[in-house]
């Protein structure tokens, strides 16, 4: 629990920018609930206390339901996951919260997915507060884009002491000619893929199988660390974005690449 001190401090630091991001929604969230159990960093169980009329399908006052926060992912397993759960509990355990749906209202597991607020006017969104810390990452959800700009801002603004993107950046076109050098390489993601064993390939500049591409290769045994940092299957969400990566440029079967084993060496640019 000693780790919670700086994390709670980070939450306090992020409250001012979050409040200024165009919240509350209009109208304010209409569903009132009480948090009974904090399941993990992004999931709680709540008792429904108040519903609008007509009530959303499948909900009734007094019902206990599981709610997952829209738009963010938490680390899975280990000390970071425990810290994320504890931080979530610090914010919401035993408290009244206010729910706002986007589309869809439930995920594949049947849990409600919602923007969750600490105040009835909808100014303090738990999703954004958590996303503004170093434990959580942006999770893109199809159909849920009401606050895409605010979420992108929260995910892109580094906390005090956070690692900035590597520099100076070398264009991927130049980097592929500098085999053996340790570089910070920048380029547009043209394609992504996974191997039979779970390896992840992020191709810059040109798509696979073009031999002129520059590849960022994440071995399967390290992929979980990257998902904890950037969200589940994050590589499926970064096509046509620009990224940077730090490491030694190697040549594999005629293709220049960097092998990534630590999430701190990959930077998803806003």
Molecular structure report:
The protein is built from 6 helices and 15 strands. With 270 residues, the chain is α+β, with helices and mostly antiparallel strands. Strands 8, 9, 10, 11, 12, 13, 14 and 15 form an 8-stranded mixed sheet that branches. The longest helix is centred in the N-terminal third of the chain and has 16 residues. The N terminus is likely disordered.
Furnish the topology, listing elements before pairings.
Elements: H1 4-19, E1 31-40, E2 43-50, E3 64-69, E4 72-73, H2 78-92, E5 96-100, E6 112-117, H3 126-131, E7 137-138, H4 148-156, E8 169-171, H5 172-175, E9 182-194, E10 200-204, E11 214-218, H6 220-230, E12 242-248, E13 250-252, E14 255-259, E15 266-268
Parallel strand pairs: 3-6, 8-9, 11-14
Antiparallel strand pairs: 1-2, 1-5, 2-3, 4-7, 5-6, 9-10, 9-12, 10-11, 12-15, 13-14
Short description:
This protein is of the alpha+beta class. Helix content is 23%, strand content 31%. Strands 8, 9, 10, 11, 12, 13, 14 and 15 form an 8-stranded mixed sheet that branches.
User: Roughly how many Å is the radius of gyration?
Assistant: 20 Å
Structural class: alpha+beta
Strand content: 25-35%
| Number of E-type strands | 15
Main features:
about 270 residues, alpha+beta, OB fold (Dihydrolipoamide Acetyltransferase, E2P), 2 domains, 8-stranded mixed β-sheet, 6 helices, disordered N terminus
């Amino acid at each position: 629990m000693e780790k919670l001190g700086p994390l709670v401090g980070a939450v306090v630091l992020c409250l001012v920018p979050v409040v200024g991001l165009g919240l509350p929604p209009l109208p304010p969230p209409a569903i009132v609930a009480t948090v009974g159990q904090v399941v993990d960093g992004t999931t709680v169980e709540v008792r429904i206390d108040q519903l609008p009329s007509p009530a959303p399908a499948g909900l009734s006052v007094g019902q206990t339901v599981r709610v997952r926060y829209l738009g963010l992912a938490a680390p899975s397993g280990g000390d970071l996951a425990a810290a994320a759960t504890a931080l979530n509990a610090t914010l919401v355990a035993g408290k009244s919260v206010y729910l706002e749906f986007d589309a869809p209202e439930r995920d594949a597991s049947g849990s409600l997915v919602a923007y969750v607020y600490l105040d009835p006017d909808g100014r303090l969104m738990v999703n954004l507060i958590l996303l503004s810390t170093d434990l959580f990452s942006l999770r893109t959800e199809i159909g849920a884009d009401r606050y895409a700009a605010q979420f992108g801002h929260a995910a892109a603004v580094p906390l005090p002491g956070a690692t900035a993107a590597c520099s100076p950046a070398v264009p991927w076109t130049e980097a592929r000619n500098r085999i053996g050098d340790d570089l910070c390489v920048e380029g547009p993601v043209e394609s992504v893929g996974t191997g039979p064993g779970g390896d992840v390939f992020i191709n810059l500049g040109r798509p696979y199988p073009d031999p002129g591409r520059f590849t960022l290769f994440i071995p399967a045994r390290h992929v979980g660390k990257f998902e904890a940092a950037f969200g589940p299957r994050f590589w499926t969400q970064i096509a046509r974005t620009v990224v940077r990566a730090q490491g030694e440029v190697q040549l594999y079967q005629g293709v220049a690449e960097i092998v990534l084993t630590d999430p701190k060496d990959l930077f998803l640019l806003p």
